[in-house]
Every structure is written in structure tokens, then in C-alpha cells.
Design a protein that fits this description.
By secondary structure, the protein is mostly beta strands. The chain has one helix and 30 strands. The strands form eight sheets. The protein has a four-stranded antiparallel beta sheet with strand order 1-30-27-26, with no helix packed on it. A four-stranded antiparallel beta sheet has the order 2-3-4-5, with no helix packed on it.
């Protein structure tokens, strides 16, 4: 082998070397019930974890639960708006969003939304909250100053995760049609619909604002990398099965997909101009949702321990039972 090819081989090997991430902590939460999204506020040192009819407030540095937000109704999404001192939790069962005080955790409002609100985002230019409602296929805009609904508007499909770009645009996956949509937050209207083919049933969505890229975790074991300017899919690196979350570390330039089917965290980054999967970090089976702390370069995932499947009704698939008091927060880092 010549020196030229040896050097090229070393460069390629380094590019595809493991990123050094691993599970560095496991914070016990306990209790019973399932979960969905989680959110992090690194400046306040808080992780907000959905948990059935609760949101658990975790101090990741202390490694413990420091509070709970109660009287919720089928929690899905969580967002915080520190400049207003408020947080927002979607209630899928009551078609509402619980607004709480970030300091006291007390409820300060609960406006109605569309049907079965799922993800929720704070859009920094309009300074409005947007819920994405899975059953009514629309979005509800809320003024966090007054806690009042501005309006609901149609999306043209079943939305999953949302991401703002900081310039007044919002992006969301449409799970049923495998599309990405672009929303004008000020006008509360959809500007563009684009296919994510060959991605199927996108769920998690992350954004690289500086690089103008979106990352959609797809049900057919791929991550769709989308150029924001054209809304075209530019790469489809492989990820694990049953993903439900995606994230992006703006400091490291890494995109993540949490794969509940095989208990892995896929890491994607550009290599020689092309987006590639460079690592699959072992996590835990069922750890399908996640959030990224770009300030401290941590990824947080929710998980629990499982027992044997319960007896299933005729024609339905039995799911493993969640063992009581086993719910916990996984911390992934270097």
C-alpha cells in the first residue's frame, strides 16, 4: 500500500470512528405509567419528562427528581419559554395545553387546542407557542403573554414533531403522508408541502439552523436529511428500528435518532460532504424518545424495565408490561 492510500485509509477510518458517546448515567424516577416527549432547559439545569398524567422535573447534575407537574391528561409534548417564565404541556386526552410557572411549577392556564395535541414548540420571532394536533390535523397558536389562543389552522395531514428555524418559520413532519411542511408563524399558514420519499412515517425531527438542514427519523430505518432551502431530501443514512425522537447538537454538529426497537442511539454527521451514520450507541430497549442539551453535550432518553407481555385481546398484539417503579432517565455523553 502506498503512503497516499495509507493516508486516505486513515482519514476514512477516523471519520467513521465511534464518536465516544456512551451511557454515562441513569437517574431513577420510579412510579408507573408510560411516557412520550421530554425537554431540557440547560440554563435552569432542568429536564422535563412526560410520565402518564405527570411531568417529572429532574435535576440532571444532582441526579434526582426535584418536582412534579400534576393534574395533567395524557401528556405528550413539553416546551419552555424562559423569557416568559412559563412552560407548556400538551394534554392529548383533554385537547388542551397546561401552562405552568417555571419557578413554582404551578398551573397558570389551560387553553383548549385542536384534537389530541402532540408536540409543542416556542417560535422565537413571533414569540408564540404552537401545538401540533394529531387527530384534527391542525396547529393551535397561543400567546404566552395572555395564555390565550390566537387561532387554529389546518396542516393537511397528521403532524408529529416540530422545529423553529429562528426566522419566523416552523417545520413539522406529517406522519400519515410522509411529508415535511413549512409554516409561516406570523401568518399562521402552511407555505410548502414536500415529500420525504423514500422516508416512511417520519416521527422525530431535529434542526441544524446554521447548516440549514432538518433531520427526520423515519419508521423504515433511515434518517431523512432535508435541505431547508429546497425542502429536498439530500441523504438517507441508516438508523435503528422504531425511532420516535431526533435531536441535533449544534456545538458538535451531530444529529441523533433514538431507536426504541433495538435500544440504540444513531449518530449522523457529514463525512466528505455526505451525511453518514458514524455510530450506534447502545442505550436500552424502548428508549425511543430523546432531547439534546447542546450546551453540555448530553443526550437524555426515557426508558423503563419490562416484564412479560400481558394477555392480548383477540386480533391484537401483546405488548411487554412496564415493571412498576422502573421508569428512569438515561444520560448519554462522552
Amino acid at each position: 500500500m502506498t503512503k497516499k492510500f495509507l493516508l486516505l485509509g486513515l482519514v476514512v477510518a477516523a471519520a467513521f470512528a465511534a464518536e465516544g458517546f456512551k451511557v454515562v448515567g441513569k437517574i431513577k424516577i420510579g412510579g408507573t405509567g408510560g411516557w412520550d416527549y421530554l425537554a431540557v432547559d440547560p440554563d435552569a439545569n432542568r429536564v422535563y419528562a412526560s410520565h402518564g398524567t405527570l411531568v417529572e422535573v429532574v435535576d440532571p447534575k444532582a441526579g434526582k427528581v426535584v418536582g412534579q407537574i400534576t393534574q395533567l391528561h395524557g401528556v405528550h409534548g413539553i416546551a419552555v419559554a424562559p423569557e416568559f417564565g412559563k412552560g407548556f404541556i400538551t394534554n392529548g386526552q383533554s385537547n388542551s395545553v397546561t401552562i405552568f410557572d417555571l419557578k413554582t411549577l404551578a398551573k397558570v392556564g389551560e387553553p383548549q387546542t385542536g384534537q389530541n395535541p402532540d408536540s409543542v414548540c416556542f417560535e422565537p420571532k413571533t414569540k408564540h407557542i404552537f401545538t401540533f394536533n394529531g387527530r384534527s390535523n391542525d396547529s393551535t397558536a397561543i400567546d404566552p403573554k395572555t395564555n390565550e389562543v390566537i387561532k387554529s389552522f389546518p396542516l393537511g395531514g397528521k403532524p408529529e414533531e416540530c422545529q423553529p428555524d429562528g426566522t419566523g418559520k416552523l417545520y413539522a413532519n406529517l406522519e400519515d403522508s410522509s411529508e415535511i411542511i413549512e409554516i409561516d408563524a406570523a401568518k399562521t399558514t402552511v407555505l410548502r408541502h414536500m415529500s420525504l420519499s423514500p422516508c416512511e412515517s417520519p416521527s422525530g425531527l431535529a434542526i441544524d439552523v446554521k447548516g440549514k438542514k432538518l433531520f427526520a427519523a423515519c419508521d423504515n430505518k433511515m434518517m431523512a436529511v432535508i435541505d431547508i432551502t429546497t425542502l429536498k431530501v439530500v441523504a438517507t443514512p441508516p438508523i435503528g428500528p422504531a425511532p420516535d425522537g431526533a435531536g441535533f447538537d449544534s456545538g458538535l454538529g451531530l444529529a441523533f435518532s433514538s431507536n426504541g426497537g433495538d435500544g440504540t442511539l444513531s449518530i449522523v454527521k457529514p463525512v466528505n460532504g455526505n451525511y453518514q451514520t458514524v455510530d450506534n450507541v447502545p442505550t436500552e430497549r424502548g428508549a425511543r424518545t430523546m432531547t439534546v442539551d447542546s450546551k453540555n453535550h448530553r443526550v437524555y432518553l426515557l426508558a423503563a424495565e419490562y416484564g412479560p407481555p400481558a394477555e392480548a385481546a383477540a386480533g391484537k398484539r401483546a405488548r411487554p408490561t412496564i415493571l412498576p417503579d422502573s421508569f428512569h432517565l438515561l444520560v448519554v455523553g462522552k
